[in-house]
Amino acid sequence: MRYPARRLKLVTFLIIFAVTLSACATAGVASGSREITKQESYAQEFAGSNGDGSLTIINYTDYSTDMIMEWGMSASGLMADQDANVLTFLYPVGMPTGQTLEFGDFGLHDVVMTPENQGALLADIELWLRADDCVDEKFFGPTSDQGQGDEFAMWRDWVEQGADASTMRILCSTTRVVAMGITPQLVWEGELELERFLAHELYHAFQQDLDMEGDCSALSEDEATANTPWMAEGGAHYFSSFLTGVVKEDGLPNEGEVGENERIRMEILRDASRAYKETPGLHESGPDRKGAAALLRMVDKGLITHEEIMDGSFFHNCARELRYPSGGPEIQEIRNDWYSISAEGNRYAFDG
User: Fold this and answer.
1) Domain limits, the chain
2) Which of 15, 18, 241, 263 is the most exposed place for a label (fewest CB within 10 A)?
């Protein structure tokens, strides 16, 4: 069976208002003009952990805010310690235009939110930020040579231009923002895929040491050699995979043929094997899929535990760079054999 989340008590923390678009033929993403209804969106305490953090959902899609919050609380409930206040905002985009945002890697889509809804969403975000006291007035002003307003201006571009944002931004050590542009393709793939997407991005918000300075920061800077890119992304994919269970079953054993955790392992290995065939480097495209397999290899070799990944504690004190330096023999071995994956029929496993 899957690793269960702790049972959570839900505690109302803050009330804000978000606009949810009414249901349409492709539920979850608005298309064209349609009636708008108002729905409460709220924050809840992280319960079942040792932290004082909170989770806020601002949802402008057709998906139930309660459902999204339940997914988020299930993910947060597994954390050993979580002190961050996390804002997650979701907004719909339309069909892809084939263009990309001028600054950033996100694809552009038809804009389906009205200007009024765009402004309301950005106002809700600003309201949350001002209550958190992480940023000052310059954060909301026009961009400047010092770049104080660049972050919020970038979020505005995502919303107004229909960018398929999928990212976590660190504003302060205990203030993190997750942005999710919900595409028609994601809607078509189903709610389980959305839950995995959410869990992946939230896990980045739970990785406490991503902004750690000193040696951790210095060792993380060289993307060609650092462990951070593939361990941080791989950790998020590993966590979200074991949290949601198998999402894409093609080429895997059917339910009941093997245990659920074994099927999840096989999905990770299958996706890593496919990513390796596209680009072989651990630091190249698909570091989340490749990194998850590499972390699974580390678990199998006893270098880390499954529990360290699932409760986020592996990302508390920069173990990814300090405990396991990229030039050390343990990591070199992982780099050399994470892709040694074989498939016998529909069963994937590491070689040796």
Assistant:
1) 12-206, 215-350
2) 15
